[in-house]
Structure formats: structure tokens, C-alpha cells
Give the backbone structure.
Amino acid sequence: MVVKSQIKFIKSLQQKKYRNLHSMFVVEGVKTVNELLLSDLKVENVYTVDKDSIPFQSNYCQLVSTSDLQKMSGLKTPNKVLGAFRIPEPQPLDFKNWILVLDSVKDPGNLGTIIRLCDWFGIKQLACSTDTVDCYNPKVLQATMGSITRVNIVYTDIEELIATCNVPVFGAFMEGISIYSEQWPANGILVMGNEAHGISKTIEKFVARKIGIPQYGKSTTESLNVATATAIFLNEIRRS
């Protein structure tokens, strides 16, 4: 039986300040929870209304009522499973391959999709500005579909990171040279900017190559969604 203090604690992890305080996060959904259970992440507890949905049953798996799961959940319609996991320590960035850098990406859905794209294209290193949305935000986790376990995500001072790196730095700009004419090296940094304002002026001065995606449709479309643009960039990097 789940006690009120447990419910209150799990519910608090929907907020970033409590995730940071306790170094824990929650994730919901059968598929995503099972993906995380297969990873190296440390599990604290799994709450479920149906133990058959968790094949890796152990002392961390707890059967709860639908009403208790509703109280813990951040969803209007909770899934059958909610898991509480420890936030892992980020690893040092590896400059031997490509590093994707996000400059103030705010939308949880965009970040979650970008993490999935990194996983798909084999980009193991993702550096985020400190004002980028928290990767353990429940909406981000839902969008990653478990890919968060296979990408090293580091929140850091990206200005210092880019200013002191010894690899080529590319950035996505509306007015940049065509992505299809660029010769991509074996390693480097790709910077993607904020949904509304793009790459900040502070970061722009460190970008050696400004790259853009040509527009073939009507000019009434202002720009591409940052996750969509990231998919095109990563595809070109890997294709070459």
C-alpha cells in the first residue's frame, strides 16, 4: 500500500527544483519505463496497476490502485506504470565524434524529439545551455521514448565550451550557405538555436560556418521547427 508521503514525494518530482534536490525523476508509460529498466539507470521504485506490464519484477515494483497512480501522475489520463529513477552523473564530452549543442531550446517536445534524433543518428553527445528545458521534464521524457538512456546530455556554459574547443563549429542560420553544398568533417560541433530567435549573438561569434536549409516553398513560412531542422542537419552529416 502506498502511503500519502510517497504519493506527495513522487508528485513533487514533476517539478524541476525537486528533481534537482533529490537527483531523481519520474517517467510514465509501459514502453518507456521498461526501456529505462533495461538501461544502466538506477531504479528507485516502479508503481503499477498491473504487474504483468513489468516483466522485470523485483522488490522495486509496487502494485497500486488506479486512484493512487492518478495522484502521482502528471498526466490527465495516467498510463498503467510510473517509474522513479536516479538522475545519472553526466559524462565528460567526447570531441572525437560530433557534438550537438542546443542554445536555449525551450519546448519539451522539441528537446525530446532531438534526443530521439541523436539516438537514431548515433550522436552520443548533447550539450545544452543552462536555460534549455530540463531533459528530465516529464514531457521531454515522454517524447524521447527511452532514447535518453543512450545519449550523454550535459548542461553547461556553451559559450565557454565552443570558445575553447579545438573542432570545427557549425551553426544553423536562415541566411547560411546551403546545407547540401557543405563538406562535413568526421567530427565537429553543430549548434541549433532557440525556437523563436535562433542562435544568440553571444554564440554566433564563435560559429565558423553558418549553414542553412534552402527553402523551396512559398516565403510565407518563416522557419522550420528546430527539431525538424535538426533531423535534416544530422541526416546530411551522417550521409556524407
About this structure: The mean pLDDT is 92. The CA atoms of residues 160 and 203 lie 9 Å apart.
